[in-house]
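Support reply, case 0932

Customer input (verbatim):
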Amino acid sequence: MRRYNLIDEKWIPVRYPDGTHAELGIRETLLMAKELGAIEDPSPLVTAALYRFLLALIYRALEGPTDIVEARTFFREGFPRDRIEAYLEKWRDRFWLFDEKYPFGQNPHVPPDEIEPWTKLTAEHNATSNKVLFDHTATKYPEERSPKECARWLLSTMSFSIAGGRGYYPSPSPNAMLCIPLGPALHQTLSYCLVPQNEEVSRGDTALWEREPVDLPLGTPKRAALGYADLLTWQSRMVLLEEEESGNVRKMRFIAGVGFENPTANPDPMQPFKTDEKFGRLPVSFRGDRGTWRDFDSLLPDQGGLSPLTVQNAFQLAGKSSELLPSSMLVLGLRYEPPNANLDFWRMERYALPKTLRDDHAVRHEIRALLDGVEKAQSALWAASRSFARDLLSRGDRLPDKKDIKAFVDQMLSTPLYWSTMESRFQEVLREYGLDRDPEDIRIQWLRWVAEALGAAWEQHRASVFMGDAWTIRAVVKAEKFVGRKIAQIREEIEQQEPKKEEV
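Our regenerated output:
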């Protein structure tokens, strides 16, 4: 029996420009894109997955954009209402969440003995093989969940499935940053992310719901993407929701899906990339010991084409008008450690985008210089921490093991305090890059903040140790020379820069 059509049902969480929230169906969301502010779900992974799903719908409904000219037309005039409505009507039968032949995003051929709780769809809730700290959701006898929640999680598991045993391939972008430039309305945000693909690729592209459900077991476990719509709706898991009498979901059928072949030749348009000497072009990933802001320059337009295509497209659409540039950017995703598929975290961060990037491409290099400076300053803090740990553990002539020194340094609070302070300062720096601010003024202010954060981090450590012991006093005094020298160097650099500013 067919039930719950996603075109009409209210399941997509949106925010209006005035800050109010609602849930809409596919038709309303796309046709009202100019009147809506953003997609906004409590889960970063669901938020990213919903954006990707809507983009795939637009790619297929408009069969484009196939070049920047067409992309600019959609950006200026909006998405053609008649073409979207005609497409949704044509494929209406493929958007029933519960259906014997074409259940949306699912495969009716999944064997009935492959039963899992609904929690297997989500990273945020306990799965049978991947426990989440502080989440007390039962997996053996889970509570029922509504169709709208399961529809959102279906999309999330397609975009963020992680590697595992028994042929469980990861989704195309499981462990990389996904970058979404944000406009004042949903329409602009979707337009920024609607990266043109050539006409031939567009003709051969398909979305998941346009194809017949594949037979199982899979004859070809891995393949390349046909185009952006295919990539954005990748069926990385084969799922079949089991509807309860109440209309909700408690259990489902769940097995491995299609593996992603040759990601280098099929780059995700939302990913930033870096060049590795050994492995070549690689996506920039979240790192557990490193904040995203420390790699921020990789998200900005560059000459090498390594920044996200979504960001590059946003700047092309804006052209010479800084008012049309995205005001900020979402960076979303998760991190896990293969091959054990243990989740470390999922994350969503928002950064302001400097307006000066349109006229001054040197801003990217200036920001990189600021980030390099903060890294070098931290090396002095690390040297001081290592010196303190070594001398305190030695207690005379004993040479402590390197692992013991590292473990001692890792539990010190000075470095985390330094990075958290500078992260908030970095957000201020991005706002300072206005059209009327001199980059040298910004750099001088940044150096002052670095020196202050370095001194405050060491003082915090100094205050945390017991200074009534001769060994501790000697270790502190010897170690803080590293920090003192670095702060002196920074202040000297500031003094050298300020006279130059006065001359100008």
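We compared this against your earlier run and they match. Two observations from our side: The chain is about 40% helix and 15% strand. The chain has a mean pLDDT of 89. Please reopen the case if you see a mismatch on your end.
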